[in-house]
Amino acid sequence: MPRVLLDRSLTWREVAEVAEGAPLDLTSAALSRIDAAAAIVQAIVERGIRAYGVNTGVGALCDVVVERPLQQQLSHNILMSHATGVGAPLPVAETRAIMAAAINNYAHGHSGVRREIPQSLAALLNAGLTPLVPARGSVGYLSHMAHIALVLVAVGTVRDGEHVVSAAEALAKAGLEPLQLQAKEGLSLVNGTPCATGLACLALARAKRLLSWADAIAAMTMENLGTNPAAFAPEALTLRRSDGLQQVGARLRHYLEGSGIVAAAIGKRTQDALSLRAVPHVHGAARDLFEAAATVIDRELASVTDNPLVTGTPEAPHVHSQAHAVGAGLALALDGLATAVAEVSAMSERRLDRLLSPMVSGLPAFLAAEGGAASGFMIAQYAAVSLVNENRRLATPASLDGGITSALQEDHLSHPTPAALKALAIVENATRLLAIEWLAAGQAYAFQTAARAPATDRLFAQLRGLLAFYADDRPLSQDMETAFQFLSSEEPATR
């Protein structure tokens, strides 16, 4: 996998690449910016300039002065007290995404950490060593990063391939020594929006692949149901202003061009059901929202989200206490993305139901191989309905939850990290649902007499390269899992 070079700011695509295993390297320009900010923090310490989290407590303890002999201890203690995650650990890719976003934040040169901090995190990434980070327990950003940062001081546990090792073992394998944190470094290690931003990058990467498959699989179902192509003809769609709608309409026309099945059905019905006719509108709206979310997330990666941040020079240092670590924009964008993907998946289930209903499809009930002796995809649709229901619950906005923490000091919470985690969960559910529709659409072709379109034939070949026709001869869940794994890692065939 090509190396990702961090010079100015990573994009969401680059963070996703690192999450999936690409090495990450810092340029000399990035390291120079990091050094300059560290020198400013050192000047603040030496001159006794009051600065939050440097020489004061944190949260509601922000007015408690911490004398210089205790400032290193403050940094160390922040990691210990803020590592409060609960539940099962995050998967490797999710943790790597957070680490990449954190390194990106330090590389802007306003956090004040020494270069050893991002270099050590990058060394862990590049050695394939992933801190064990509990997935739950964060309203914004603190606990996930604290668990990652523990490893830098030789505390906590680390995934090394299939094994779990101590932080000390992991550091030794990466050729690193445990760090003695300096003033502000403990706060910088847990602060900002890298947690939500990193997870958001991964959600975007997975949602982008999902939206490509959603168009392709919808086309296969539409072909099997003999959809009326007039609904997405260019002269009709150009009258509706939406870039996403135009893209989806063009993709549907491409997939169904030359379809004997569609040609044989022309004239049989005036207008299709909305789960077919409105695919460009719903999938297109999701694509438009995806682009808006991607803009927000790239903007977040280009921003400094530390509190406090430092500017100026060692001779004229400035420290700024603000609220850049509040991820309201992230939470709102992720809530929107999650809802859009949930709607796409709900429409997929409606198409699936039409495929399985003989009164609508004209195909054998549940696409079963043998009448009453086989159930075919009957209960697979139950699973699809369950996933739609779960997505509907998950799509409740996290950004509206509010809450109060730190003895009234933090009396507004935007919940960007929960928003990112539920967006990832919705994308996974939606991918599983599309996998079921893909299986059913492929099954339906067995009962067609006319020819498939060349493009849908390639999609069908991808499916049959994985799985044979389903004849109630094996647990259907196995096929569903195989299809899900394929959709999660591959793109629809283009030739």
TrEMBL record:
Keyword Magnesium: no
CDD domains xref list: PAL-HAL (cd00332)
Gene Ontology MF terms: histidine ammonia-lyase activity
EC number of this enzyme: 4.3.1.3
Protein keywords: Lyase
Pfam families: Lyase_aromatic
InterPro entries reported in the protein's UniProt record: Aromatic_Lyase (IPR001106), Fumarase/histidase_N (IPR024083), L-Aspartase-like (IPR008948)
Signal peptide residue numbers: none
Broad enzyme group: lyase
Keyword Lyase: yes
PANTHER family: HISTIDINE AMMONIA-LYASE
Name of the featured protein: Histidine ammonia-lyase
